UniProtKB/TrEMBL annotation:
Membrane-topology descriptor: Multi-pass membrane protein
Provenance organism: Candidatus Enterococcus murrayae
Cell compartment(s), UniProt: Cell membrane
Protein name: Sulfatase-like hydrolase/transferase
Coiled coil (UniProt feature): none
Main location: membrane
Pathway assigned in UniProt: Cell wall biogenesis; lipoteichoic acid biosynthesis
Membrane spanning residue stretches: 12-33, 53-71, 78-94, 125-144, 156-174
Keywords annotated in UniProt: Cell membrane, Membrane, Transmembrane, Transmembrane helix
Residue span, Sulfatase N-terminal domain: 249-528
Pfam family, one: Sulfatase
């Protein structure tokens, strides 16, 4: 009996407790991934994908060891670890709920975007987030100070553990590099689904999906990529003699937050009028139609990236989830419409009626070469509608007019609106629209939002007609709002949940009156072609591709008036598509040979 008592039960129980904490935390991640379905979480862990679940537990165990060694205590390490798990888990649940996609490693960089987080989750959850963050920071400072007083033997053990776990975490961070042993262990049973990160996380577990989205090369290298191959492509699309265009009209981009047409969705009937009546009055008389958005309920920065650069998200590796934060900041300059127009004597201005740090826009706009960036703190016009917390579209349009009226040089103005951003409830007193099929308060408020947006757009375009200078406008919605019921989402799976409205407008009314389906990376090339402006070699490549493949994103390809899950390309079309791949790789991950050929000027 005495021998039994002398066994290190306390240490044994500590080990059991730590292992239990790791397993419970991984189960918690699975719960947030599966709408808190205990049945699905337990089946994933102990029936369907046990090996992948415990591989995830191993990663969490290493992270736990690193935290505990950093803080110098298993007790405080456990508390800090639990706070981190709770915070990431709740964030994952909310993102899945609002945007139908999980948390990515790069999303953790947004932890200091307090204004954005408050607006997205509401005051109560934002206060909870601040409490978790404050508790974590306090615990970190308190524990590190206390750990400095530990005896030398424990300090030595702590240092060894910290160095060991740090090294393993660094190795885990190279998960997507060739030969990584952890990746090989996952590959034995994991069926990665790169075209759908939501399904990827479901299939490999939260930890598997999270690891899969750690840093990776932007694109796979095309087999025939070389300086000679790039030169061959650039020469093919730069056959005409270049000359300076006589006309330099103002160009205005307007990316309208969540602007879309709910009446296009199956299962919905809107009563009380048409919220897009004013929009249609303009769109039906100019070049317009539907634009294919990469995501449902979010992904604003990715659509903006496509529209400004002409590069498609579909060509990137699946882990390249947000180029604005993961790719563009790595460059001193990056080819875009901004640079093309600046080389032609344009002044360039970005306007975003919110703060400057979302998606690293301040840094990204500087890399693109914008002359100035106006945000909520530097805009003159900041009016809001009723209880809407965001600056109105009407005020943002007035900011554009200020720039057009005071500058003599041709202008490129890029506006990213905020009026129709979530949350939608409690903005307006009067909600005249009623919806059969999904009559939620959020949807009814959203309808009023887009009605105000439509009115502001029509007024803006009518005012443009009075300008003495020719002005071209591209207006589009970035994505659908993430507010529709599960039933409506199920009934509209595929491209219907990804189609938003777009139009191009010429205050001299010279554009074709045509209805089309397109992708945002075609906007600049299409505008230059429609407006009969001098096109770059890259834009000629894009318009050539657009004729064969008018719109595409992962698992959504629009060809010959039909939608397919895979591209159906003949030899001619495949060759054009490969030309596009070569140029995009050359700029984003290659040697940028095409810049030497002035392909973007």
């Amino acid at each position: 009996m005495q021998k039994v008592r002398k066994l290190p039960w306390r240490q044994f129980l500590k080990i059991i407790g730590v292992l239990g904490l790791i397993i419970v935390s991984n189960l918690f991640f699975q719960l947030t991934q599966n709408e808190f379905s205990f049945d699905l979480a337990f089946k994933f862990a102990f029936s369907w994908h046990t090996e992948k679940f415990f591989l995830g537990c191993f990663v969490l165990f290493i992270f736990y060891g690193w935290v505990s060694s950093l803080l110098g205590s298993l007790k405080t390490g456990s508390i800090f670890y639990a706070l981190a798990v709770i915070g990431v888990g709740i964030a994952n649940y909310l993102k899945m709920n609002y945007r139908m996609e999980p948390i990515y490693p790069d999303d953790l960089k947004m932890i200091t975007e307090f204004g954005m987080i408050r607006d997205m989750v509401g005051t109560r959850l934002f206060i909870l987030f601040l409490l978790l963050l404050a508790s974590g920071i306090f615990l970190l400072i308190f524990s590190v100070k206390k750990s400095l007083k530990l005896e030398k033997k424990r300090q030595r053990t702590r240092l060894i553990l910290f160095v060991l776990t740090s090294g393993i975490l660094i190795y885990i961070g190279s998960f997507n590099q060739q030969g990584n042993l952890l990746r090989k262990a996952y590959d034995k049973t994991a069926l990665w689904i790169p075209y759908s990160q939501k399904m990827n996380y479901y299939n490999t577990g939260f930890m598997g999906g999270f690891l899969y989205n750690l840093p990776v090369e932007a694109m796979e290298k095309p087999e025939n990529y070389s300086a000679a191959a790039v030169k061959k492509v650039t020469k093919e699309y730069q056959t005409e003699t270049r000359r300076e265009a006589a006309e330099k009209p103002n160009i205005v981009y307007v990316m309208s937050e969540s602007f879309s047409d709910p009446s296009r969705l199956k299962g919905l009937e809107i009563y009380g009028g048409d919220p897009l009546q004013e929009y249609r009055a303009v769109a039906d008389k100019t070049y317009s139609g539907q634009m294919l958005s990469q995501n449902y309920g979010g992904g604003t920065a990715n659509i903006e990236f496509e529209a400004l650069t002409g590069f498609s998200m579909e060509l990137f590796n699946a882990q390249m989830t947000t180029p604005y934060t993961m790719l563009v900041p790595e460059f001193e300059s990056f080819p875009s419409l901004v640079g093309t127009l600046k080389a032609r004597g344009y002044e360039t201005t970005a306007i975003h009626p919110y703060n400057t740090s979302m998606y690293k826009r301040k840094d990204v706009y500087q890399t693109f070469g914008f002359d100035q960036f106006l945000d909520e703190s530097t805009m003159k016009h900041t009016d809001k509608i009723e209880s809407n917390p965001y600056i109105s579209d009407k005020a943002a349009y007035q900011e554009i007019f200020d720039q057009l009226e005071k500058n003599k040089k041709p202008q490129f103005l890029h506006l990213v609106t905020m009026q129709t951003h979530m949350p939608y409830e409690n903005k307006y007193d009067d909600l005249p629209y009623v919806v059969q099929g999904d009559n939620s308060l959020a949807l009814r408020s959203y309808l009023q939002d887009i009605a105000y947006s439509s009115e502001a757009l029509k007024g803006f375009l009518e005012k443009l007609d009075e300008l003495p200078e020719r002005t071209l406008v591209v207006f589009w919605g970035d994505h659908l709002p993430g507010i529709y019921s599960d039933a409506i989402q199920e009934e509209n799976q595929g491209y219907p949940l990804h189609e938003t409205e777009f139009l191009m407008y010429d205050n001299r009314h010279r554009l074709n009156n045509q209805q089309v389906t397109t992708s945002p990376f075609y906007f600049a090339a299409d505008l230059f072609q429609q407006g009969r402006l001098q096109m770059t070699g890259f834009q000629k490549l894009l318009t050539t591709l657009q004729k064969e493949l008018p719109a595409f994103e992962k698992s959504m390809y629009y060809q010959s008036g039909q939608w397919f899950k895979e591209a159906r390309l003949n030899k001619k079309q495949e060759k054009i598509y490969q030309d596009y791949q070569i140029i995009q790789y050359d700029i984003t991950a290659g040697k940028q040979y095409s810049l030497q050929e002035n392909f973007f000027e």
